[in-house]
Amino acid sequence: MTQDPEELGLERRQAELAALETAARELRYFLPAMITGLLSTPEYIRASLGHLPGDVSKTVARKLERQAVLHDTSKAFTFVLTEQAVRWAVVGPLAMSVQIEHLANLSQLPNIRLGVVPLGSRLGQGPMNTFTVYDDRLATVETFTDRMVFQDPADVAKHRQVFALYERTALFGEQAGEQLHEWAEFYRRDL
Question: Where in the numbering of this chain does the DUF5753 domain appear (predicted)?
């Protein structure tokens, strides 16, 4: 049986991301629109891939396998999510409340800093797209059709600078946890 080229692309993409995550020690994720697969529940992952034709079960499995890297305490993760990203209703109310509580739980891991930027926060620069910075050596930017990779030190430094801007605006720790629990409760009230 021949595999769909789009399926092959999804599998290759998961392998590339896993390699980047394995090689890096300090990872920064800016998420303005959706929750990344590293932080997602299985139901959220499936729903986020729902627009793709064919069977996405292998991609869901690979995304879930990649989550093991979050427990590698030799790595430091910083995730900055906008309220839009956290609250975008990709799944139904119960699954959204579970997804948001999952974020709160992950934020308790010792090597994860998870920050949220509530709507109404003043930002010096509008959040344009999802990007990830791997150490000081590489930045990736997600688009609808592909991913751009920046290795030039000036480009990586610029992405770190923009990340720092959003990071300074985000709520972390107890404040982030309280905000996440409030947003999860909003979905539970819809049940």
Answer: 15-177
